[in-house]
Design goal:
heterodimer, A: Rossmann fold, 17 helices, B: mainly alpha, ABC transporter involved in vitamin B12 uptake, BtuC, 12 helices, globular
């Protein structure tokens, strides 16, 4: 097998031409962070010319092992062999020299720089002196070659996430990477963008690159990958198995243990009207929310589908009381809350699960007990104003953690140390506590592995079965279809009438999501 | 009136250059993400060392070099603390200022108030005799400083290594994964700020006052900190800010020597009041993005698990 590089502009290191040695071989990798084991004898074998899926739960060690492969973390033990050679990867620079490039989940691009400046920076870091004009030319060429249409002079912070990802891929390829690692690349993309990316990945592998794809989406794995490696709790449990020999349910069992199939929600008889939004409008330069009205009854989950950035975050902020709408009414059980403070809304029974839990719901540095107690401080549950009972906080927290099946943390664990799924459960434990009438959940399962996502969805469904109501704002149509009996679509700030029954199909939703009505 | 203006213009560089040099160095350091409150300390050791060197019989040029080295030495301590040992930038900066002022207080005491012949003015050189007063009163550090501003601008915005410097200040993780040595870059930037701070201090004693007095820096280092923020971390803004603040100080003293009745302490206070005022206006106009490097003051640790 011969490897033709797409990067004629750069030297290709370690080009043996033999091709028999794996592109990347990680053996017996151990890594612990402050005594907490992240990887234990983990391994990964990546061959030239393949697309290789790396699958596992949140916290299974996928990102950690790839960060070891790119020199970001030094392993405590183990071997790293690149194209048959033992390569010491002491720093990210060593990995770049070895032809390994990673597209991180959170792009490593400088937001204030242009695409060309970011590329020039990377090339400079790799010891290649290029002027900005040369960098811009390289970007244009590579971008045309890949069919990207990137503007080299566009500022990263002003272009879409998909374009940022393209810039990152162009950067990594211009650095001479022939081993590409993509960390959940499709998590931030729309369906079409994701398909385009996966097609590109296939092309790159055909031209001799080795591609590792970290992903949660098993559909992608079975459609686009040649082999699969599954990790679980820091160990490699399925090592480089060919896809065609492996039924997907085997993979699911290995990666996640037994997953309960989420019950499609039973239709309860709708109860009393809990939340009513009338003619809510908000303008920030342009109309962000345009005459949004909806009605939500007890025992009901109303889905709001739509591509992100069409007013979802603003709707949540208006409900939370952080943003003041220009006009409109928000009523909870008949009480007008449009001008009420966030604290007042919370007392009235309105609870919010925001899209970014650490941005606006939980504090990373506080312990789980403290995070859980934050919302109960005012009512004297944990002592009068002059005293805070840590004992009561911990007892209450221990109870919540058990009830919501939070793993990997005790009441005194800092929230930052929990994996995404467990942190989300802690947040749910707090928000679904007594007195909840309406839960507004914004992408509650985004970025979570299958099992955590199901657990989060089940918890929401249980709360609704107990008489609350839920407004589920999500970009994930599978989730919406499974959870909701009625779905509206938010498109450019306008909310469609809810679809129900036989009208509720993914196709119809898709039309409304991209419609220019 | 125009005489007054000309006189003001003549003394302007004397007040502007120390601010310019110190804030230029500071800007380099902060562009690399190291929040740097040290200029007051760098300037103090630079001023004292320069004066001591002249009093010890060295030429003014060598004395200025000594000032630069002293500032660099102090900045190395600050750099070790913040970049290598990852101390809090603000606290380390304040400690460095205290250290600089303390050292000068102890070592400089015997040499206080001893006038000396400092750096020669252009009119005193063999070739500069016929120069008009406005130019003749200046010294070589004026053109050197202006060239420095240009050079720093060119370096930061047009050279690959300048790009690396800015990247480290904006997003050290991004710089790290492309193979840039974050710590080395930051340390280099801190040393540059020390060198320029030392030069600014040496200018005060060797080129301007021709005497060393304890406390002669008199808060100029803090004004430099303000200038950099006012400038939005841009060389052009630094030049403009230094002229603005230096010019205000020069004008104040001019007015006093002209016999304008003015309470002394009110006059001394005015530059700071001006700082505050200009600041509020500049920040209010700029809105949310004040141009600060995104990772300014953040300690970067690669092994952090995100």
């Amino acid at each position: 097998m011969t490897h033709r590089s797409l990067n004629d502009a750069s030297p290709t290191p370690q080009q043996t031409g033999a091709g028999e040695a794996p592109a990347l071989l990680l053996k017996g990798i151990d890594k612990a962070f402050d005594g907490k084991v992240a990887l234990s004898k983990a391994g990964f074998r990546l061959a030239w010319g393949e697309v290789h899926a790396l699958v596992g739960e949140n916290g299974a060690g996928k990102s950690t092992i790839m960060n070891v492969a790119t020199g970001v973390y030094g392993p405590d033990a183990g071997e790293i062999i690149v194209d048959g050679r033992d390569v010491p990867l002491r720093s990210p620079g060593d990995a770049v020299d070895a032809g390994i490039g990673m597209v991180h989940q959170h792009f490593r691009l400088v937001g204030r720089f242009t695409v060309a400046e970011n590329v020039a920076l990377a090339l400079h870091g790799a010891g290649r002196r290029v002027t900005l004009a040369e960098a811009a030319r390289l970007v244009s060429e590579k971008s045309a070659e890949l069919g990207f249409g990137l503007d080299p002079n566009a500022v990263i912070g002003r272009i879409s996430v998909a374009e940022q990802q393209r810039a990152e891929i162009v950067k990594v390829l211009l650095l001479g990477a022939r081993i590409l690692i993509l960390d959940e690349p499709t998590a931030v993309l729309t369906g079409d963008e994701a398909r385009a990316l996966l097609t590109l990945v296939r092309q790159l592998s055909r031209s001799g690159h080795a591609v590792a794809l970290i992903t949660h989406k098993l559909q992608e794995v079975s459609d686009h990958c040649d082999r699969i490696t599954v990790m679980r709790q820091g160990c490699t449990v399925m090592d480089a198995v060919a896809m065609e020999e492996t039924p997907v349910d085997t993979i699911i069992r290995e990666a996640f243990g037994e997953v309960r199939e989420a019950p499609r929600r039973q239709m309860a008889a709708p109860g009393a009207e809990l939340l009513r939004i009338d003619h809510l409008s908000l303008t920030q330069d342009t109309p962000v929310l345009d005459d949004v009205s909806l009605c939500l009854r007890a025992g009901e989950i109303l889905g709001i589908a739509g591509v992100g950035g069409n007013g979802q975050s603003e709707l949540v902020a208006c409900l939370n009381g952080v943003l003041r709408p220009d006009s409109g009414r928000i009523a909870l059980s008949g009480e007008d809350l449009a001008k009420a403070s966030p604290a007042h809304r919370r007392r009235a029974g309105l609870r919010i699960i925001p899209a970014d839990r650490f941005d606006s719901a939980m504090a990373r540095g506080l312990t789980l007990a403290e995070n859980l107690a934050l919302t109960g401080l005012a009512d004297g549950r944990f002592g009068p104003w002059w005293r805070l009972s840590r004992r009561k906080m911990k007892q209450a927290a221990a109870k919540s953690l058990t009830a919501f099946n939070v793993l990997g943390g005790t009441p005194s664990t800092p929230a930052a140390l929990l994996s995404g799924g467990n942190a989300q459960k802690v947040l749910l434990a707090r928000e679904l506590a007594a007195g909840t009438k309406v839960v507004v959940a914004h992408s509650p399962a985004r970025g979570l592995d299958l099992r955590s996502a199901r657990a989060v969805q089940d918890l929401l469904a249980e709360a609704v079965a107990d008489g609350a109501a839920c407004l589920l704002i999500s970009e994930d149509l599978d989730e919406i279809m499974r959870m909701c009996s009625a779905v509206s679509v938010l498109n450019r700030g306008r909310l469609s009438a809810p679809l129900t029954g036989s009208d509720l199909t993914p196709n119809r939703l898709g039309e409304l999501m991209v419609g220019h009505a | 009136m125009s005489d007054t203006f000309l006189a003001w213009l003549t003394v302007l560089p004397g007040y502007t250059l120390p601010l310019l040099l110190a804030s230029l160095g500071l800007m380099i350091s902060e562009r690399a993400g190291v929040l740097n409150l040290c200029p007051e300390g760098f300037m103090a050791v630079g001023a004292m060392t320069g004066a001591l060197a002249v009093l010890a019989g060295y030429s003014p040029a060598v004395a200025i070099l000594c000032g630069i080295l002293a500032g660099t030495g102090l900045s190395l301590l600050f750099g070790l603390a913040t970049v290598v040992f990852r101390a809090d930038h603000t606290l380390a900066g304040l400690a460095t200022v205290a250290l600089g002022l303390g050292i000068t207080g102890v070592l400089g005491r015997p040499y206080v108030q001893k006038p000396f012949d400092g750096l020669t003015r252009l009119s005193e050189t063999s070739w500069g005799e016929g120069l008009p007063r406005l130019l003749g009163q200046q010294n070589l550090l004026l053109p050197i400083s202006l060239i420095l501003v240009l050079a720093v601008w060119y370096w930061i915005f047009r050279r690959p290594s300048g790009l690396s410097l800015r990247a480290v200040g904006e997003d050290p993780a991004a710089a790290d994964v492309v193979g840039i040595d974050v710590q080395l870059t930051q340390l280099g930037a801190v040393l540059a700020s020390g060198a320029l701070g030392g030069l600014a201090g040496a200018y005060l004693s060797v080129a301007s006052a021709h005497v060393w007095v304890e406390g002669m820096v008199a808060g100029r280092g803090w004004v430099a900190v303000a200038i950099v923020i006012f400038a939005g971390w841009r060389p052009r803004g630094v030049l403009f800010g230094a002229i603005l603040f230096g010019g205000a100080e020069a004008a104040m003293l001019r007015l006093q020597t002209q016999g304008v009745e003015f309470p002394l302490y009110l006059g001394a206070m005015l530059p700071y009041a001006l700082t505050l005022l200009v600041f509020c206006i500049a920040c209010a106009r700029r809105g949310r993005d004040n141009g600060a490097p995104a990772a300014l003051g953040r300690v970067y640790l690669r092994q952090d698990k995100h």
